[in-house]
From TrEMBL:
This is Nitroreductase. GO terms for molecular function: iron-sulfur cluster binding; metal ion binding; oxidoreductase activity. Keywords: Flavoprotein, FMN, Iron, Iron-sulfur, Metal-binding, Oxidoreductase. The keyword Metal-binding applies. PROSITE patterns: 4FE4S_FER_1 (PS00198), 4FE4S_FER_2 (PS51379). It comes from Desulfatibacillum aliphaticivorans. It holds the Pfam family Fer4_7. The lineage of its organism: Bacteria, Pseudomonadati, Thermodesulfobacteriota, Desulfobacteria, Desulfobacterales.
Amino acid sequence: MLEKHKHISFPPKTDFPIFQVDDEKCIGCGRCVNSCPIQLLMLDSDKKARPNERYDHFRCICCQNCAASCPNDAITIQGDYRVHEGFWKNDNLFEGGKTFPDPLYSRNGAKYEDYEDQLTETEKVIYNRRSIRLYKKKRVPKELVHRIIEAGRFAPSAGNNQPWKFVAITNPDVIEEIDQICKKRVRLFPQMLMPHPWVDKQVPGDKNAKPKKWQKTLHYLLSRKTPGDVDQRVLGGINTISSDPEYRTFFKAPALIILAKDVRGIGSPDLDLGICGQNMVLAAHSLGLGTCWVSLIKGLTWDHRYVRKVLGLEYPFKILTSLTLGYPAGQVDNIVARERQRVNWIE
Protein backbone atom coordinates (compact mmCIF):
# COMPACT_ATOMS: atom_id res chain seq x y z
CA MET A 1 0.00 0.00 0.00
CA LEU A 2 2.76 2.43 0.95
CA GLU A 3 4.71 1.51 -2.18
CA LYS A 4 1.79 2.56 -4.36
CA HIS A 5 1.64 6.03 -2.84
CA LYS A 6 5.36 6.84 -2.77
CA HIS A 7 6.86 9.66 -4.77
CA ILE A 8 3.71 11.60 -5.62
CA SER A 9 5.80 14.73 -6.31
CA PHE A 10 8.46 14.39 -9.02
CA PRO A 11 9.34 10.68 -8.65
CA PRO A 12 13.14 10.33 -8.49
CA LYS A 13 13.46 7.01 -10.32
CA THR A 14 12.32 8.25 -13.70
CA ASP A 15 13.81 7.75 -17.16
CA PHE A 16 13.11 10.54 -19.62
CA PRO A 17 13.53 10.57 -23.41
CA ILE A 18 16.72 12.27 -24.54
CA PHE A 19 16.88 14.95 -27.27
CA GLN A 20 19.68 14.41 -29.77
CA VAL A 21 20.68 16.53 -32.76
CA ASP A 22 23.00 15.87 -35.70
CA ASP A 23 25.07 19.07 -35.89
CA GLU A 24 25.97 18.42 -39.51
CA LYS A 25 22.31 18.35 -40.52
CA CYS A 26 21.05 21.12 -38.22
CA ILE A 27 20.66 24.41 -40.12
CA GLY A 28 19.63 26.52 -37.12
CA CYS A 29 16.14 27.32 -38.40
CA GLY A 30 14.68 27.24 -34.89
CA ARG A 31 11.54 25.33 -35.84
CA CYS A 32 12.20 22.72 -33.16
CA VAL A 33 12.65 25.47 -30.55
CA ASN A 34 9.29 27.03 -31.40
CA SER A 35 7.40 23.74 -31.69
CA CYS A 36 8.42 22.31 -28.29
CA PRO A 37 5.35 22.48 -26.00
CA ILE A 38 7.51 22.75 -22.87
CA GLN A 39 10.09 25.08 -24.44
CA LEU A 40 13.05 22.85 -23.60
CA LEU A 41 15.21 23.85 -26.57
CA MET A 42 17.33 26.75 -27.74
CA LEU A 43 19.79 27.68 -30.48
CA ASP A 44 23.35 28.02 -29.20
CA SER A 45 25.93 30.56 -30.36
CA ASP A 46 26.67 28.38 -33.39
CA LYS A 47 22.98 28.28 -34.33
CA LYS A 48 22.64 24.62 -33.42
CA ALA A 49 19.66 23.19 -31.54
CA ARG A 50 20.38 22.31 -27.92
CA PRO A 51 18.48 21.61 -24.68
CA ASN A 52 18.24 24.73 -22.51
CA GLU A 53 18.30 25.07 -18.72
CA ARG A 54 14.63 24.13 -18.42
CA TYR A 55 15.58 20.64 -19.63
CA ASP A 56 17.08 19.90 -16.21
CA HIS A 57 13.73 20.55 -14.55
CA PHE A 58 11.00 19.26 -16.84
CA ARG A 59 12.51 17.01 -19.50
CA CYS A 60 11.16 15.76 -22.80
CA ILE A 61 7.62 14.30 -23.07
CA CYS A 62 8.51 12.56 -26.35
CA CYS A 63 5.78 14.16 -28.46
CA GLN A 64 8.47 14.27 -31.20
CA ASN A 65 7.07 17.44 -32.74
CA CYS A 66 10.61 18.82 -32.84
CA ALA A 67 11.66 15.89 -35.02
CA ALA A 68 8.50 16.08 -37.15
CA SER A 69 8.99 19.79 -37.86
CA CYS A 70 12.72 19.59 -38.63
CA PRO A 71 13.25 20.12 -42.38
CA ASN A 72 16.57 18.24 -42.37
CA ASP A 73 15.78 15.19 -40.23
CA ALA A 74 18.47 16.35 -37.82
CA ILE A 75 16.65 15.37 -34.61
CA THR A 76 16.08 12.05 -32.92
CA ILE A 77 14.54 11.28 -29.53
CA GLN A 78 16.15 8.36 -27.73
CA GLY A 79 14.50 6.40 -24.93
CA ASP A 80 11.05 6.51 -23.36
CA TYR A 81 9.31 7.98 -20.32
CA ARG A 82 9.42 5.32 -17.62
CA VAL A 83 8.74 5.63 -13.88
CA HIS A 84 10.06 2.68 -11.86
CA GLU A 85 8.26 2.94 -8.52
CA GLY A 86 5.60 4.75 -6.56
CA PHE A 87 2.24 6.21 -7.53
CA TRP A 88 3.23 7.03 -11.12
CA LYS A 89 4.93 3.67 -11.83
CA ASN A 90 4.48 2.76 -15.49
CA ASP A 91 7.49 0.66 -16.51
CA ASN A 92 5.31 -2.45 -16.11
CA LEU A 93 2.73 -1.17 -18.58
CA PHE A 94 4.78 -1.29 -21.79
CA GLU A 95 6.44 -3.97 -23.89
CA GLY A 96 9.53 -2.61 -25.59
CA GLY A 97 9.97 0.89 -26.96
CA LYS A 98 8.05 2.98 -29.44
CA THR A 99 7.45 1.83 -33.01
CA PHE A 100 6.28 3.46 -36.23
CA PRO A 101 2.80 2.71 -37.60
CA ASP A 102 2.18 -0.90 -38.63
CA PRO A 103 -1.46 -0.90 -39.74
CA LEU A 104 -1.03 -3.87 -42.07
CA TYR A 105 0.30 -6.05 -39.23
CA SER A 106 3.50 -6.83 -41.09
CA ARG A 107 5.69 -6.85 -37.95
CA ASN A 108 8.76 -6.69 -40.16
CA GLY A 109 9.76 -3.07 -39.76
CA ALA A 110 8.43 -1.97 -43.15
CA LYS A 111 8.74 1.76 -43.81
CA TYR A 112 5.60 3.84 -44.06
CA GLU A 113 6.43 4.78 -47.65
CA ASP A 114 6.37 1.09 -48.59
CA TYR A 115 2.70 0.60 -47.74
CA GLU A 116 1.25 4.14 -47.82
CA ASP A 117 -0.49 3.51 -51.15
CA GLN A 118 -2.46 0.67 -49.54
CA LEU A 119 -4.03 2.92 -46.89
CA THR A 120 -7.25 4.89 -47.04
CA GLU A 121 -7.12 8.68 -47.02
CA THR A 122 -8.54 8.67 -43.48
CA GLU A 123 -5.73 6.40 -42.26
CA LYS A 124 -3.13 8.64 -43.87
CA VAL A 125 -4.47 11.70 -42.04
CA ILE A 126 -4.51 9.80 -38.73
CA TYR A 127 -0.90 8.64 -39.01
CA ASN A 128 0.53 11.89 -40.36
CA ARG A 129 -1.35 14.37 -38.17
CA ARG A 130 0.72 16.20 -35.54
CA SER A 131 -0.16 18.96 -33.08
CA ILE A 132 0.62 22.24 -34.84
CA ARG A 133 2.21 25.12 -32.92
CA LEU A 134 3.72 26.91 -35.90
CA TYR A 135 1.16 28.94 -37.86
CA LYS A 136 1.23 31.30 -40.80
CA LYS A 137 -0.21 34.77 -40.35
CA LYS A 138 -2.98 33.90 -42.75
CA ARG A 139 -6.68 34.19 -42.07
CA VAL A 140 -8.71 30.98 -42.14
CA PRO A 141 -11.83 31.57 -44.26
CA LYS A 142 -15.11 31.39 -42.37
CA GLU A 143 -16.31 28.77 -44.84
CA LEU A 144 -13.53 26.39 -43.78
CA VAL A 145 -14.14 26.99 -40.08
CA HIS A 146 -17.81 26.17 -40.69
CA ARG A 147 -16.83 23.04 -42.62
CA ILE A 148 -14.67 21.81 -39.72
CA ILE A 149 -17.37 22.46 -37.11
CA GLU A 150 -19.85 20.66 -39.32
CA ALA A 151 -17.63 17.55 -39.19
CA GLY A 152 -17.85 17.77 -35.41
CA ARG A 153 -21.61 18.20 -35.47
CA PHE A 154 -22.01 14.78 -37.07
CA ALA A 155 -20.01 12.91 -34.46
CA PRO A 156 -21.77 10.17 -32.50
CA SER A 157 -22.91 10.95 -28.96
CA ALA A 158 -24.60 9.01 -26.17
CA GLY A 159 -28.34 8.85 -26.77
CA ASN A 160 -27.82 11.17 -29.77
CA ASN A 161 -27.78 13.94 -27.15
CA GLN A 162 -25.26 16.10 -29.07
CA PRO A 163 -24.14 17.87 -25.86
CA TRP A 164 -21.93 20.46 -27.53
CA LYS A 165 -21.76 24.11 -28.40
CA PHE A 166 -18.95 25.91 -30.21
CA VAL A 167 -17.43 29.37 -30.04
CA ALA A 168 -15.46 30.16 -33.21
CA ILE A 169 -13.04 33.08 -32.81
CA THR A 170 -11.08 34.64 -35.66
CA ASN A 171 -10.61 38.09 -34.10
CA PRO A 172 -6.90 38.23 -33.11
CA ASP A 173 -7.53 40.77 -30.35
CA VAL A 174 -10.05 38.49 -28.65
CA ILE A 175 -7.72 35.47 -28.95
CA GLU A 176 -4.91 37.51 -27.37
CA GLU A 177 -7.24 38.69 -24.60
CA ILE A 178 -8.25 35.12 -23.80
CA ASP A 179 -4.59 34.10 -23.93
CA GLN A 180 -3.63 36.63 -21.27
CA ILE A 181 -6.54 35.66 -19.01
CA CYS A 182 -5.57 31.99 -19.21
CA LYS A 183 -1.89 32.73 -18.51
CA LYS A 184 -2.85 34.65 -15.39
CA ARG A 185 -5.22 31.96 -14.13
CA VAL A 186 -2.86 29.01 -14.55
CA ARG A 187 0.03 30.90 -12.92
CA LEU A 188 -1.27 29.84 -9.50
CA PHE A 189 -0.95 26.14 -10.31
CA PRO A 190 2.86 25.82 -10.51
CA GLN A 191 3.24 28.18 -7.56
CA MET A 192 1.18 25.77 -5.47
CA LEU A 193 2.84 22.54 -6.60
CA MET A 194 6.40 23.21 -7.78
CA PRO A 195 9.64 24.28 -6.07
CA HIS A 196 9.58 28.06 -6.30
CA PRO A 197 13.08 28.34 -7.89
CA TRP A 198 11.59 26.52 -10.91
CA VAL A 199 8.61 28.79 -11.46
CA ASP A 200 10.45 31.46 -13.48
CA LYS A 201 11.42 30.33 -16.97
CA GLN A 202 13.96 33.10 -17.41
CA VAL A 203 15.86 32.14 -14.22
CA PRO A 204 15.34 28.38 -13.81
CA GLY A 205 17.06 28.30 -10.40
CA ASP A 206 18.39 25.36 -8.42
CA LYS A 207 17.65 22.14 -10.29
CA ASN A 208 17.95 20.23 -7.00
CA ALA A 209 15.24 22.27 -5.28
CA LYS A 210 12.49 20.21 -3.68
CA PRO A 211 8.79 20.92 -3.10
CA LYS A 212 7.89 22.06 0.41
CA LYS A 213 6.03 19.70 2.72
CA TRP A 214 2.72 21.50 2.24
CA GLN A 215 3.17 21.30 -1.54
CA LYS A 216 3.72 17.55 -1.37
CA THR A 217 0.60 17.20 0.75
CA LEU A 218 -1.45 19.23 -1.72
CA HIS A 219 0.04 17.28 -4.62
CA TYR A 220 -0.97 14.03 -2.95
CA LEU A 221 -4.53 15.20 -2.36
CA LEU A 222 -4.94 16.39 -5.94
CA SER A 223 -3.47 13.15 -7.29
CA ARG A 224 -6.35 11.28 -5.62
CA LYS A 225 -8.95 13.44 -7.35
CA THR A 226 -7.42 14.59 -10.65
CA PRO A 227 -4.13 12.73 -11.27
CA GLY A 228 -4.00 13.87 -14.87
CA ASP A 229 -3.61 17.48 -13.73
CA VAL A 230 -0.58 16.94 -11.47
CA ASP A 231 1.62 14.57 -13.48
CA GLN A 232 5.17 15.99 -13.52
CA ARG A 233 5.05 16.32 -17.31
CA VAL A 234 1.88 18.42 -17.11
CA LEU A 235 3.42 20.78 -14.59
CA GLY A 236 6.30 21.56 -16.96
CA GLY A 237 3.88 22.54 -19.71
CA ILE A 238 1.74 24.69 -17.44
CA ASN A 239 4.81 26.45 -16.08
CA THR A 240 5.99 27.24 -19.61
CA ILE A 241 2.80 29.11 -20.39
CA SER A 242 2.44 30.89 -17.07
CA SER A 243 6.05 31.98 -16.52
CA ASP A 244 7.17 33.16 -19.97
CA PRO A 245 5.61 36.49 -21.02
CA GLU A 246 6.57 35.84 -24.66
CA TYR A 247 4.94 32.41 -24.89
CA ARG A 248 1.38 32.18 -26.12
CA THR A 249 -1.15 29.64 -24.89
CA PHE A 250 -2.71 29.47 -28.35
CA PHE A 251 0.52 29.87 -30.36
CA LYS A 252 -0.73 33.01 -32.14
CA ALA A 253 -3.04 30.85 -34.22
CA PRO A 254 -5.38 32.85 -36.49
CA ALA A 255 -8.46 30.94 -35.31
CA LEU A 256 -9.62 29.34 -32.08
CA ILE A 257 -12.60 27.01 -31.61
CA ILE A 258 -13.86 26.55 -28.05
CA LEU A 259 -15.81 23.37 -27.31
CA ALA A 260 -18.38 23.65 -24.51
CA LYS A 261 -20.39 20.77 -23.07
CA ASP A 262 -23.94 20.56 -21.83
CA VAL A 263 -23.33 19.54 -18.20
CA ARG A 264 -26.65 17.66 -18.24
CA GLY A 265 -25.52 15.47 -21.13
CA ILE A 266 -26.39 11.79 -21.27
CA GLY A 267 -23.66 9.37 -20.21
CA SER A 268 -20.28 11.06 -20.53
CA PRO A 269 -20.48 14.40 -22.36
CA ASP A 270 -16.69 14.79 -21.96
CA LEU A 271 -16.22 11.67 -24.06
CA ASP A 272 -18.77 12.86 -26.60
CA LEU A 273 -16.92 16.15 -27.02
CA GLY A 274 -13.64 14.29 -27.43
CA ILE A 275 -15.15 12.31 -30.31
CA CYS A 276 -16.63 15.51 -31.74
CA GLY A 277 -13.30 17.34 -31.52
CA GLN A 278 -11.39 14.52 -33.16
CA ASN A 279 -13.78 14.63 -36.10
CA MET A 280 -12.92 18.32 -36.39
CA VAL A 281 -9.18 17.69 -36.10
CA LEU A 282 -9.17 15.06 -38.85
CA ALA A 283 -11.32 17.24 -41.10
CA ALA A 284 -8.99 20.21 -40.59
CA HIS A 285 -5.82 18.30 -41.42
CA SER A 286 -7.46 16.71 -44.46
CA LEU A 287 -8.09 20.30 -45.68
CA GLY A 288 -4.44 21.31 -45.28
CA LEU A 289 -4.99 23.11 -41.97
CA GLY A 290 -3.36 22.40 -38.61
CA THR A 291 -4.78 22.07 -35.11
CA CYS A 292 -3.67 21.68 -31.52
CA TRP A 293 -5.77 20.68 -28.53
CA VAL A 294 -5.44 23.29 -25.75
CA SER A 295 -7.39 22.40 -22.63
CA LEU A 296 -5.82 25.20 -20.59
CA ILE A 297 -8.72 27.23 -21.99
CA LYS A 298 -10.51 25.96 -18.87
CA GLY A 299 -8.65 28.68 -16.95
CA LEU A 300 -11.15 31.03 -18.57
CA THR A 301 -14.06 29.43 -16.70
CA TRP A 302 -13.11 31.36 -13.56
CA ASP A 303 -14.04 34.58 -15.32
CA HIS A 304 -17.80 34.03 -15.44
CA ARG A 305 -18.63 37.50 -16.68
CA TYR A 306 -16.22 37.25 -19.63
CA VAL A 307 -17.53 33.83 -20.58
CA ARG A 308 -21.10 35.08 -20.50
CA LYS A 309 -20.68 38.54 -22.04
CA VAL A 310 -17.95 37.97 -24.63
CA LEU A 311 -18.27 34.28 -25.51
CA GLY A 312 -22.04 34.06 -25.08
CA LEU A 313 -21.87 30.87 -23.03
CA GLU A 314 -24.35 30.32 -20.22
CA TYR A 315 -25.71 27.37 -18.24
CA PRO A 316 -26.01 24.52 -19.10
CA PHE A 317 -22.89 24.95 -21.23
CA LYS A 318 -19.41 24.83 -19.70
CA ILE A 319 -16.04 25.17 -21.44
CA LEU A 320 -14.28 21.83 -21.79
CA THR A 321 -11.43 22.34 -24.26
CA SER A 322 -10.36 24.20 -27.39
CA LEU A 323 -8.67 23.75 -30.75
CA THR A 324 -6.25 26.17 -32.34
CA LEU A 325 -6.66 26.33 -36.10
CA GLY A 326 -4.58 27.73 -38.92
CA TYR A 327 -2.29 27.09 -41.86
CA PRO A 328 0.92 25.33 -40.74
CA ALA A 329 4.14 27.29 -41.22
CA GLY A 330 6.12 24.70 -43.13
CA GLN A 331 5.96 20.92 -42.82
CA VAL A 332 4.93 19.65 -39.40
CA ASP A 333 2.51 16.79 -40.08
CA ASN A 334 4.71 13.72 -40.26
CA ILE A 335 5.13 10.10 -39.17
CA VAL A 336 6.48 9.52 -35.66
CA ALA A 337 6.87 6.50 -33.38
CA ARG A 338 4.40 5.77 -30.59
CA GLU A 339 4.16 3.26 -27.73
CA ARG A 340 3.22 -0.26 -28.78
CA GLN A 341 -0.38 -1.49 -28.68
CA ARG A 342 -1.73 -2.60 -25.33
CA VAL A 343 -4.41 -5.07 -26.34
CA ASN A 344 -5.74 -8.38 -25.05
CA TRP A 345 -6.89 -10.54 -27.96
CA ILE A 346 -9.73 -12.93 -27.14
CA GLU A 347 -10.41 -15.20 -30.12
